[in-house]
Amino acid sequence: NVSAFSAAALVVLFGAVNMEEAYRSVEWRVIFIVATILPVGIAMERTGAAQLVAETVLNLAGGSGPHAVLLALCLLASILSQSLDGAPAVVLLAPVALKSANVMGISPQPLIMGIALCASAAFMTPFSHKANLLVMGAGGYKVRDYLKIGTPLTLIFIALAVLLTPVFFPFHT
Questions:
Q1: What is the pLDDT confidence band of residue 169, given thresholds at 50, 70 and 90?
Q2: pTM higher than 0.85, yes or no?
Q3: What values do phi and psi take at 161, rounded to 5?
Q4: Distance of CA 164 to the CA centre of its chain
């Protein structure tokens, strides 16, 4: 973040872009989404909603072990990130991962890393990532084109995340 800000400041300082152009290029939608979703994550924690979602995830997948819980959280992160930005998906699911890990007596690291990775796997819709939107018009793509290529990519990505994340971030330390 600091390097991105520094680069942006240098571009303006050296006159490559004027301040008005820089202001217009800011993705205000993303800033507002993150600014409004952060309090939701805090509220989920304080109201017990994170606990409720964690209990639901554990009731559905917990009996099958930590890999199943990781899979459930990765699926939720991926589904949320197809319509939201990845950051709000992480903010919403991180408290759920922490509660789930606490209840199961495992490290939260693989759950949170899995959420972060799968929230970044936004391949299934043109709205899930700015790059998808940028090429949609130029390539003449339709939503079904993203679903066609994005669904198998997403499923492969989730499978790899569930298999590999615990290798680098074990459930038990």
A1: very high
A2: no
A3: -65, -45
A4: 17
Question: Please, what's the b/e burial string for 4-15 (b: 16 or more CB within 10 A of its CB; e: otherwise)?
Answer: eeeeeeeeeeee
> Given the structure tokens 């939201």, which residue do they identify?
84
pLDDT tens for 15-74 read 888 878 877 777 776 677 667 666 766 776 778 776 777 677 777 776 788 999 999 999
CB-count burial class (<10 Å; 0-12, 13-18, 19+) for 55: middle
User: First and final CA of the chain: distance in angstroms?
Assistant: 31
Q: CB neighbours of 128 closer than 8 A, spacing ≥ 6?
A: 81, 82, 83, 122, 146
